[in-house]
Amino acid sequence: MEYYFGNPNPNPNPYFHHSTVTNVASPSSELMLSDYLVLEDGTVDHHQESWSQSTETESSEKATSSDATHGFADATSTINNMKCKSDGNKRKKEEVSQSVTFRTRSQLEIMDDGYKWRKYGKKTVKNSPNPRNYYKCSGEGCCVKKRVERDRDDSSYVLTTYEGVHNHESPSINYYSQMSLVHPNDWALQSSANSSSMH
DNA sequence: CGCCTTTGACCAGCGC
DNA sequence: GCGCTGGTCAAAGGCG
Which end of chain A has less Cβ packing within 10 Å, N or C? Predict the structure, then answer.
């Protein structure tokens, strides 16, 4: 299964290209968001753990290490096993999911990542002036979710948390492939390369 | 008409 | 047990 992230929409959000994932500890290390999101089902590799870091708004995601050398210290990633079912054991704490959180600087909350999302909820969260929006992938049988909220400390940043793995390719995968195609198996190398040399 | 957003209600987990 | 909180549901309405 391949899993891509980027800005493959033929009619891209004009602000998206200015969205970056910034490492607070090392502000000079900025990556285009589209440069590195590829998830592989179920595995936790060194790189993914390395940029795991809790944010206070993501209390359910425990902090691991933050490794500024990868430039991902400001993104939260918790990779677990995904269970995609809406009944029975939903909302159990033991029900873990594969989730990745990006903190991006963007004027718009909705960044076009190539997938089609349907909003299903909006909640105000405690200790945050900004509401949290909940989206599901509109793909048939695809239960990937994402949460989008503005950083309570700096509203110029958007926190986007993806949960799950798409069971389909991005509708705009062809377009994206011309920009920056990364196979999941190569993602570790890609992310490592990106951290050392941009583009 | 189909798909979307909005939004209040509902539910489960958690802390006290 | 109770209240708070986060996450989800589903009805209603809007839009193309």
Answer: C
